[in-house]
From TrEMBL:
Keyword field contains Acetylation: no
Transmembrane annotation, as ranges: 79-102, 114-141, 161-182
Gene: Cldn8
Protein name listed in UniProt: Claudin
GO cellular component: bicellular tight junction; plasma membrane
UniProt lineage: Eukaryota, Metazoa, Chordata, Craniata, Vertebrata
Membrane topology: Multi-pass membrane protein
Functional description taken from the UniProt entry: Claudins function as major constituents of the tight junction complexes that regulate the permeability of epithelia.
Amino acid sequence: MACCVLQITGLIFGGVGMVGTLAATAMPQWRVSAYVDGNIVVFETIWEGLWMDCISQLGLRLQCKFYDSVLALPPPLEAFRALMCLAMGLAIAAFLMAIAGVKYTRHSTQGTPAISSFILAAGVAFLLTGTLVLIPVSWTGGSIVRDFYDPRVPAPLKRELGAALFVGWGSSALLLAAGTMYC
């Protein structure tokens, strides 16, 4: 009975982590404009994401523009896109393996070796997915903090941590927890 509860909990954590990975990849709020000067009147907010840049003017008007060329992107952004897309595909595959493992566990008349293969594969896939999500999110967060405190970076170019980074960290933690439960 405890095994089934652990599998269902891992399935829920993995599902929420998968949805969080999809959301973090699609969200444009990876880097958000920072206001470090004494100016309290702010008319626009700039968001930078993996796929597009957005400008919100007074919170009323939102304009987003997809990046024009893949070849014009900086190499780290290309790598982060690739890692997040790979993580999305692996998260979906791991979730489907976990569903098959839980379903196969319930209707199994054989011993535990047939049960553990789906569950173990889903656990390894969830652990790998959590690591793949953690790398670009933490790297971006580290570069934002480094640039924020660098006196050589002009104030208008300073950025803050966006909501997508927090979603990415949360989903990575859930995916790693699901992988640990299944392994």
